Amino acid sequence: MRITCSGARSDWRAVDLTDPLFYAQGDPHAVWRAMRDEAPVHRHRLADGREYVSVTRYADVRTVVGDHQVFSSRRGNMLSVLGGHDPAADRMMVSSDPPIHTELRAPLMKHLSQQRMRELGPAIRAMARGLLAPLADGDTWDVAESVAMFPMMFTGLLMGLPERDWPELVRLTSTSVAPDDPAYGADGDSPLSAHHELFDYFVELAHTGDDDREDLVGAIRRMTPQGRRIRTDEVIYNCYNVLLGATVTAPHVIASTVLAFTEHPDVYARITPEADAVDLAVTEALRWSSPATHAMRYTNAATEIGGVPIGADEAVVAWLGSANRDRAVFDDPYRFDVTRRPNPHLAFGSGRHYCIGAPLARVALGEFFGEVVRIAEGFELAGEVRHLVSNFIAGFTSLPVRARLRPGAERELAAARAEGS
User: Is the overall model pTM greater than 0.70, yes or no?
Assistant: First the structure.
């Protein structure tokens, strides 16, 4: 998806925001900008009769994703399930509301805490250095392809999944969230078949092994929602939920940020390896990329948003990417600013459904970009950029770049490659 905005006015009425191809070839930020100014709360009717309400301003988006009492997650949180029934309702964390959501979420918190993630920092740093090792050759490095495996490398460890399974799991999760992209549909996979394969994979995990295993799968298997033993279908759904949530967005944050580095070398030069500077840059990277474009909710009762009446049981789509460019909250929102303060982005959502993997994402991205800043003086594009065909994930399937390395970086990267071979 186009990450910047030309500033030109867009005829938002002529755009179908549910069309995945639009995010690969169009300029959604120009559309969202026009909608924030002209129709911040707007009801859309699709050709097949389905309807949803778009919300584009920061304050309204935060209300929709943060107020679970009015805006429910039980009927699904993505446009791909608009108008349907979510079979995972009240069984999967992301498709439930409190108190069930809280009961499913709480047991996982200690495994994904900030402290636990910091303990993993050195291991994640070594993983990042290994992925950067090809830069030592001076050849073209495709960021999107190279970092696709990055989150699986530590999520697989946290979940206790065999390393031999990681590449196939990455392929299936990518197909699940971007089934219309040729890069993931080349083998004839459909989102339904990808979902089924993932479910089948977790069926075996739900039935085999020790309940005392000290990983995320073990924590899920020991859950006691509503005071009872968790059912097998709930184990499967929540393993699936954790895997997708942890793996499908982080690679696109990295790719979109490296693209920004190629476009704004002066901004990249301001990032120093110190932790505080890297943390600020990561926060801006999350706002800038907004990897999940939207979150969908259904109203529990009639309400209003921005003075617009919304009926009961209506679908409301909160555009996170739009909220993160709202000039009412962010000064000069189309400027990539790695020193931006404050930066209250909504890339992780808000309220009870605030991304449970946020501490993991922050630490992983911090370690990755910390290594990038230490190793590379700058980047330049080295080929065609291909944007992901998806109305849910703002990302890339190809981003070829070349890097100018800092003195001594080649030897360090060569050592990292030798360690990984």
Answer: yes
CA distances from residue 244 to 156, 173, 271, 346 in whole angstroms, order as listed: 12, 6, 30, 19
Gap between the Cα atoms of 94 and 89, Å rounded:
9
What is the pLDDT, as a whole number, of residue 183? 83
Over residues 250-264, mean pLDDT: 97
Reported as half-sphere exposure (CB side, CA atoms, 13 A), residue 115 has a value of 2
Instruction: Give pLDDT tens digits for 376-413.
Output: 999 999 999 999 999 999 999 999 999 999 999 998 88
Counts for the chain of helices (H) and strands (E), in that order: 19, 12
Contact 72, 352 (CB under 8 A): no
Give the CATH number for residue 180: 1.10.630.10
In a domain? residue 1: no
Phi, psi of 360 (to 5 degrees): -65, -45
CA–CA separation, 402 and 239 (whole Å): 37
Integer Cα distance of 306 and 371 in angstroms: 44
Q: How far is 256 from 252, CA to CA, in rounded Å?
A: 6
Structure-token match 């110190």, residue found: 274
* Residue 4 maps to a domain: no
Alpha-carbon radius of gyration of the chain: 21
| 17, part of any domain | yes
**Lowest-pLDDT range, 7-21, 258-272, 383-397?**
7-21
Q: Which single residue is written with the structure tokens 């990249």?
A: 268
Phi (first) and psi of residue 142, to 5 degrees: -85, 105
In a domain, 336, yes or no: yes
Residues recorded for the chain: 421
3-state secondary structure of 185: helix
* Strand partners for 405: 376
Exposed/middle/buried for residue 224 (C-beta within 10 Å: 0-12, 13-18, 19+): exposed
Contact by Cβ (8 Å): 104, 88? no
Q: What is the pLDDT of residue 11?
A: 84
Domain count, the chain: 1
Range of the domain at 167: 12-420
Average pLDDT of the segment spanning 24-42: 95
Furthest C-alpha separation in the chain: 63
> Backbone phi, then psi, for 174, in 5-degree steps?
-65, -40
